[in-house]
Structures are given as C-alpha cells and as structure tokens.
Amino acid sequence: MELTLDGVGTRLGGRWVVDGIDATPPAGAVTGLLGPNGAGKTTLLRLIAGLLAPGAGAVLVDDDATGAPVAVDTIPRRRRARRIALLEQESSATVPLLVREVVALGRVPYRSWWGADPDDGAVGRALAAADASHLAQRPWDSLSGGERQRVHIARALAQEPDLLLLDEPTNHLDVSAQLSLLTFVRTLGTTTVAALHDLNLAAQYCDHVLVLSSGRLAAAGAPGDVLTPALVRDVYHVEADVLAHPRTGRPVIAFTGPAPAGVGERAGSGARPSGAESSAERQVRDEPSPARPSHDTESATREVRDERSSARPAHDGSSAARPSSAGADDTALADASRKGAS
Amino acid sequence: MARTEPEQRVRDDQVRDDQVRDEQVRDEQVRDQPARDDRAQDEQGRDEQARRGRLRDELARGGRARAGGRPTRDEAPRTARPGDEKSRADHPRDPRAPLRPPLGLLVATGAVLLVASVALAVTIGPAHLALGEVARSVASHLGLRVAPVPTLHDAIVWDLRLPRVLTAAAVGAGLALAGAVMQSLTRNPLADPYLLGLSSGASLGAAAVLLLGVAVLLPVAAFVGAMLALLAALSLARVGGTLTPTRAVLAGLAISQLAAAATSFVIFWTARGDSYQEIVAWLLGSLAATTWSSVAIAAGALVVASLVVVAAAGRLDAFAFGDTAAASLGVDPNRTRWFLMGVVALLTGALVSVSGSIAFVGLLVPHAVSPLTGPSHRRLLPVAALAGGVLLVWADTLARTVFAPRELPVGIVTALLGAPVFAWLLRRGRGAAWS
Description:
Number of helices of chain B: 17
Low-confidence stretches of chain B: 25-41, 58-91, 431-435
Number of strands of chain A: 12
Helix content of chain A: 25-40%
Order of helices and strands of chain A: EEEHEEHEHHHEHEHEEHHEEHHHHH
Strand order of the largest sheet of chain A: 6-7-8-3-9-10
Shape of chain B: globular
Distance between the termini of chain A: 54 Å
Strand content of chain A: 15-25%
Strand content of chain B: under 5%
Oligomer: heterodimer
Structural class of chain A: alpha/beta
Helix content of chain B: over 70%
Structural class of chain B: mainly alpha
Low-confidence stretches of chain A: 261-342
Shape of chain A: globular
Order of helices and strands of chain B: HHHHHHHHHHHHHHHHH
C-alpha cells in the first residue's frame, strides 16, 4: 500500500504530540518508527491507522478502487479495517478467549450483520501463515508472550491488510522470539510500519526508519544512513558508537552510556579494545555512512541532521575546540569520560 | 582483549568492504524489496520463503484472490521442508481446550428446557393442576376447540400463574442478556444490568407510588424513576470530562447511592404496616403482582432488545481487547457503546418496572453459561437469555411455594442460589476475567 504522511500532526491537551511529519514509508517494505518514550510513536501509528483524525496535514493512502490518494480517516471504518491492521502495544482480554477466537476477531470487518464470514477458511489460513495452527484450541491466557504476539499477528493477517502497523511488537519477548517475529514480518511483503525501541533490531530488520523526537521527524532514511552517533546523541541523549555487523554489515549501535561521566564506562570498555584506539577503528567510526548516492529523495534529512549536530552545544570543552565530524566528537567525548573516571 | 593494530586494520578493511557490498544489496532491496536479505538472515530466510510459499498456496487454494491483491515479490522456487506436511495437518484436539458444543444444540436444549419449565411451573402451586389441564386451558384461550377446563382452574392457569411464569421467563432472559452486554461494554466481569443506577431509580419511583401516594401506575413510576436515574448518571459522568465507561460506572454508583438513600428515607419516614411489607417486597424483587400487561411489557422489551443486541454480537466481540482494538477492527467504540448501553438501559427499565430489581441473575448467568458457549456473543447472548429465563422461572416457583401461603421476594431466592454458584465459579477460576 502506498502511504504518505503529509505534514501530519495532532494535538493532545494543547500540546502537539505529533507535529508536521512528512514522510513516505516505502511500499512493501518494513519501516521502523524510532524515538524515545513519549516521542509520539504510538500517536503517529494511530494517526496512520485512521483511528485519530489529524489536527493538521493528512495521512494519505491509495484508494483500493481508484488508486487515487485518500485520507485514511475519511475511509469508512469497516473498509479501512479490511486494509489496515494495527497491533497494539499492550492488549489484554477480559474474557477467556481461545486462540482461534482471537484470530477470528480479524474477520469482524468482513462479517455480515448476522455474523457470517464470507470466507470460512480465512482464520485457518491466517493461523497457518503465522505458524500458530497448533495453538488454535489453546486458551489465550495460557500462551507465552511470544506465542501471543504470533497470534496477534495472525489476527492482523486475518484482516488481510495491505498495511500492517505494529506498536512495539517485540516488547517483553525474549531475543529468539524478537528475531523470529521480525523475520516473519519481513517475509510477508506487506507494507509495514513498526514502532521499535531497540535500535539494533531496527538496524537489522528495517528497510527504512523514521526517527521521532518530541513529535517531530528528526531523520528518515535507510538505517545505515540515519542511525549515526550524532543522531543517537541528539534524539536519545546517549553516547554510542555505530559499528558494522561483522557478518551482515548492517549497523550495530554500541551504547556507551548517557552523556557525561562514569556511567557508561563499563559498557564502553566491552565494546572496544582497551588502551589506545587504533587509527583504523577511529576512521571507521568517522565515516558511519560512506558517501554514496542516496536512494531516497530525503537528502534533506541528512542536512537537517548535520545542522543539528553542529548546532548542538558541546558536552565538554575539549570537543568544542575540535571542528570535526560527529564521530570525532564522539571519540573525544569517550576519551574525556574515560580520563574523568580513572 | 586487545588486538594488534595490523589485525585490526585487516578486520576493519573487511568490515568496510562488507558495508559497501551490503549497501549495494540494500539499494536494490529498497527498490524491489524485502524478500532478499542480508547474509545472516539467509538461513532463516529460506525457512521463511518456504512458509511464505505455503501462505501463498493456501491463499490461492482459498480461491479468493483479492481485487488488485497483494503483489508477490518473491518468485524464488519453493524449497520443500520436512515440517511442511506436519504443520499443515490437522492438529489433534488440545486437552486444555474447553468443550464447546455447537450453538444449535445449546439453543435447542435451552428452548426445550424453558418451555418445559414454564409448563411445569404453571402446574405447581397450592391448587394442584395436571399438565393436561394447563394445556387445554391455554389451547382454549388460543381459540382451539378442546374439552373444557373447570372455570376455577382455567382462571388459575390463565389469569394467575401463566402471566406470572411467562413474566419470570421474560425478565430472567432479559436480565441475563442485559448483564452479558453490560459486562462486555464495560469490560468489567462484575457489571450487571443495574449498573447505571437503574434499579435504585426504579425503587425510588416505586416508593413514591406505594408510600407517598403519587397517582400513577407502579410500572410507569418505576420506569420513569429508572430513566431519570440513567440520565442523571450519564450527565454526571459527562461533567468535567469525556464520557468513558469507567466514569459512567462511577457516576452510576453515585446516583445509585443517592437514590437508595432517598428511598430509605421515604420508607423510614412514611412506611407503616402493609405498605412497609409491600415496598420491601418490591425492593427485593417480586413477581407477585404480574398480569398479562407485565408479560407484554417484559416480553416486548425483550424481543426488541434481543434483536438489536444479537445483530450487534460481532461488534461486541470486537471489544474483547479494548477500544483501540475495536476501532482498528472497524467498530466505532463510542457509538456502539452508547447505543447498546441505551438499548440495555431501556430493556432493564422495562423489566425493573414489572418485577423490581432482582439480584444476581444479570451478573451470574453470563458467567455460568460462558464455559459452554465461549465468549463469542453470537453464542453467548441467546444461550444466556434462555438460561436466565429458566433460572428465574424456577426461582420464582420456589419463592411462591416454599413458604406457601406466604411468598418470598424472588430476589432473596436468586441471591440464595446465586451466591454459592458464584463462589463455585470463582473457585474454578476462569482465566483472565477472574484474576
């Protein structure tokens, strides 16, 4: 599904919790929605789902009949539910449902008024697709966290959506459940927007990321372009190095700790060799994203990012003196903090 | 562990090469998307491709290609997996799965039980009647030519017992239905039909008639009282904020207490002798004063409300995971909630006007039948209604016979039956709703 965010924003209690977001998550790909707690990820997902009417701008999708762009919040409810599925962050049932009944909820937008489903096999197919057929007769509350997410995905698939919205789908899951869930989502080939907390998961599984900071879009693009030490510091207020995964080459974010002094020391020493830094290593970090033609039209984002990192007041005196790239700043900071701690 | 510098450089060079190569791969991917992935995911990828192939097959077999369906980007040949057949095979019944008989069986059983209960209950009482007499009396009133029944017996059947038993059936069914709907709309397993102050308002209306001599018919006064209490509760819930279910429940509680205090005050101040007996019996719920017009009120309200509510069963199901989930399934949570709450309030108002407030039926019956029906409202609502009808028919029969010729208010009987059943259900612990 073609999805365009056109200056979309909304106010809650007088504050713009989502503010002027312009973005085009690529169709058929997995887009990660990143940002610290309270950055507006969940609200933006609700806007995209059409559950909230935007206070400004619009969320546009292609009409399934004409192909022309329409605002999601104007699509009739049931029709919208046949095209867009949303997985909430926290969802618990108050009634003792069986797994099959949970998945059957995904058919609600298709049912006739007396409750008949025009496609009897849809629930079974959704269960099979999510590899949850063996759970069908199990009570919902007897499932593990990973199984629950799998069943939620099956429920979403039963809606036969063109757009899948996931709000922190890997929360509370162990690492294997996280990886298999996201691997599975990738295989669907459905346009997906997933709010994620784990930057490394986002780097590994997303084709495109949108980074929110206080309701605004801080950056957008391929994870390798966007997830830089400068961005992580600006948005999350955390010092980090971005390495390349030894096997996949995808970015790996190694966190050092919250900005100044001491706290990050322990984590930092594990992430890099002790003693003097090798010049090669520094060089790698200085160039987190080698220059290459951007495949997105969002080079503007990079400008914004550069502007931000240079405009930002330095964390300590030593780095302010160095007119250098964000990566070098970062190194200087880490050095300084190490000296301070010892 | 520190690496020597040359090693490090080699390593870094390789990392950079990998990056460049990967970036080329990724550039392709973004354009033509995510089937292919990085090397580390290749292994998982193969399994996933197999699974995805399976999904496509299954979708194709379902024979229902969506218009302009999902593009399939992955044209890689399917690799057969040993697990494929096994996971596609039917899974044996899980021993943990609860037993859920088909809806037709449940409804048929319930209907037979209800009709039998009504017929039997009519024969029970101080004047012993045979089933045949009951049948002939009913038949003659329906205009069929049958052997005549003694006038006294005919009057007992047609004017006294049958209206009462039928009212009991309709009130019981209505309360169970209303309770089930309230419980899912508020997502609160302890919700009952009187939640929004309806019973206290009705009681105040009844007290006004019985004790203060307001010159209207008792059912009218009770209905007006119930509706005024409902309006007061909803307006209170709306004051200073949006109308959420929790606020509505709390406001209902406040209005209930207020109306109950007013009722108690009126009783304390004015009730003497007979009128005291009368109002207490009404407050505890009683079917003693029923006539054919009570049957018409209760059954009419029940039929209208149950048509509406059963038609909304799918929308009620969608509330299982909360409002946002309901909204994402194409249900407008607020509009659905207020519409159905309004229907249920009107139904409850009608019921309370003919019977007073009868405890426990609306709370208990949905919980008692849901182990058999499951939480799907298309199954739960009709079965709960039938079970509520049967329960109240027998509760009322007990109420009027156990201490005959004295009568117990039926609310005492339902509470006596209900509390232990509720305790038993609680002991069985039915999952999330009870935790």
